[in-house]
Amino acid sequence: MPGQRLTGKRALVTAAGQGIGRASALAMAAAGAKVFATDINAETLSTIRDANHENIEIFELDARSDDSVAAGIAQANPDILFNCAGFVHHGTVLDATDDEWDFAFDLNVKSMWRTIRAALPGMVERRSGSIINMSSACSSVIGAPNRFIYGTTKAAVIGLTKSVAVDYVATGVRCNCICPGTVESPSWHDRVDALGKQLGSKEEALKQFVSRQPMGRVATAEEIAALVVYLASDESAFTTGHPHIIDGGWSGQ
Ligand SMILES: NC(=O)c1ccc[n+]([C@@H]2O[C@H](COP(=O)([O-])OP(=O)(O)OC[C@H]3O[C@@H](n4cnc5c(N)ncnc54)[C@H](O)[C@@H]3O)[C@@H](O)[C@H]2O)c1
Description:
By secondary structure, the protein is of the alpha/beta class. It is built from 9 helices and 7 strands, in the order βαβααβαβαβαβαααβ. The protein has helices spanning 19-30, 42-46, 48-51, 66-76, 98-126, 148-168, 186-199, 202-211, 221-232, and strands spanning 10-13, 34-39, 56-60, 80-83, 129-134, 173-180, 243-246. Helix 1 packs across helix 9 and helix 7 (186-199) crosses helix 8 (202-211). The relative contact order is 0.15. The structure holds nicotinamide-adenine-dinucleotide. Nicotinamide-adenine-dinucleotide binds next to helix 1 and helix 7. InterPro entries: Sc_DH/Rdtase_CS, SDR_DHRS6-like, SDR_fam. Pfam families: adh_short_C2.
């Protein structure tokens, strides 16, 4: 029954100000969890208040800062940790810069190490926890054009997930990751606009993004949030250590 799947659970979400993180925070709250929705962007985060959900508390958390993560995890003491923060760099191996590489590995991968090492001891003590990491279909699952740094970091997320899962499988703590195809979100719209400028037409850019999705459309953030709720809930109690692909058939061809 809606409202009961996550009753009694506390969930912390990074990057909940917009996109998949926001949709997942709202979906988990609707499923009964007490949700701590966090982001570095206080302005977008505050729009979650408009949803006026009594189960949602918001606060700023910078996933790139050890201190910010430690304080946030101490406040939330989560049973469910959804590591959603990430950034998409454009370009090939020859376009990439050292700074982009370091930034991406810090935000897309090391941030998960930060949150997990802070949240895991409490989960182990309670012998219950679900960690959900944001990977991508563009990772070790599939190569996408001009996603050298991004795909490399998201493949690392799969390795990180498996490692945590295997080390803690007997403690009641599960760790999975999700691998979406293209999802409509504010940053995706920015990427469409940027490609549109290169191609001289936003329509052409949209066509390129949509054409790689065999269903002829991109996903909604809510479709990804439904998988997050499943992995957060006890319905997935026998599932750990896996990348869960939700890509509209992109990698299944
Ligand atoms: N949109 C897609 O097509 C798609 C596909 C697969 C995977 N993903 C992954 O999903 C995640 C969310 O992407 P999206 O497109 O839904 O959202 P988005 O890119 O539009 O929003 C990202 C959010 O991350 C926040 N953020 C940035 N730096 C942060 C930091 N240091 N600490 C905390 N928050 C920070 C931003 O403020 C913003 O609210 C990312 O990890 C992304 O790689 C997205």
